[in-house]
Automatic annotation (TrEMBL):
Claim: 4Fe-4S is one of the keywords in the record: no
Reaction equation(s) it catalyzes: GMP + ATP = GDP + ADP
Subcellular location: Cytoplasm
Protein's UniProt name: Guanylate kinase
Name of encoding gene: gmk
Domain Guanylate kinase-like: 3-181
GO molecular function, one term: ATP binding
Length: 202
């Protein structure tokens, strides 16, 4: 049985990472794809856990070898998803989350049309700015650039299957859980998952 591939996208500061972290902690049937990136680790980030941190030359070597399912250049850094890792997890019947930007999402959908895409919006631009300042990681100039980029990113919300607004964290988290549960209950998935039961019943 093939697992579900979920794409979760949001503008920087919309709370995507926190929501995904909590989702993973409460659902053992879903995994997170760890992306490769050329950006430097932020405080507290661990190589191989949050990202695979690589040099530009290594990233470009992998790109030329077609190792990435998708790749993008965002905020001055490169990001990519390992195709072999994605295929391995899905073939085992496990669900997988790709936490990627809209460019990567478009690339993945072209190869995996069955992927389920979710866009997380902030409740307002003011809230987004407050969250970016609250991180304490970026200068005012970087935050201004991120806000400008966020407006461009959020215009792509119309390309996604589902949309949730992260105003109340628990509400947004329950939205994500509901989407995942809905996909798992689809007829084809259920008939494959419960084949033995079906044979006994009919």
């Amino acid at each position: 049985m093939t697992g579900n591939l979920f794409i979760i996208t949001a503008a920087s500061g919309a709370g995507k990472t926190s929501l995904v972290r909590e989702l993973l902690a409460s659902d053992s049937q879903i995994q997170l794809s760890v992306s490769y990136t050329t950006r430097k680790p932020r405080p507290g980030e661990v190589d191989g856990v949050h990202y695979h941190f690589v040099e530009e030359a290594e990233f470009m070597r992998m790109l030329e070898a077609s190792d990435f399912l998708e790749s993008a250049h965002v905020h001055g850094a490169r990001y990519g998803t390992s195709q072999s890792r994605v295929e391995s997890v899905l073939k085992q019947g496990n669900d997988l989350i790709l936490e990627i930007d809209w460019q990567g999402a478009a690339q993945v959908r072209s190869l995996y049309p069955q992927a389920i895409s979710i866009f997380i919006l902030p409740p307002s631009l003011e809230a987004l700015e407050q969250r970016l300042h609250g991180r304490g990681q970026d200068s005012a100039e970087v935050i201004a650039r991120r806000l400008a980029a966020a407006r461009d990113e959020m215009r792509h919300v119309v390309e996604f299957d589902y949309v949730t607004i992260n105003d109340d964290f628990e509400v947004a988290l329950n939205d994500l859980r509901a989407i995942i549960r809905t996909q798992r209950l689809q007829r084809e998935k259920q008939l494959l998952r419960h084949q033995d039961l079906l044979e006994k019943l009919i």
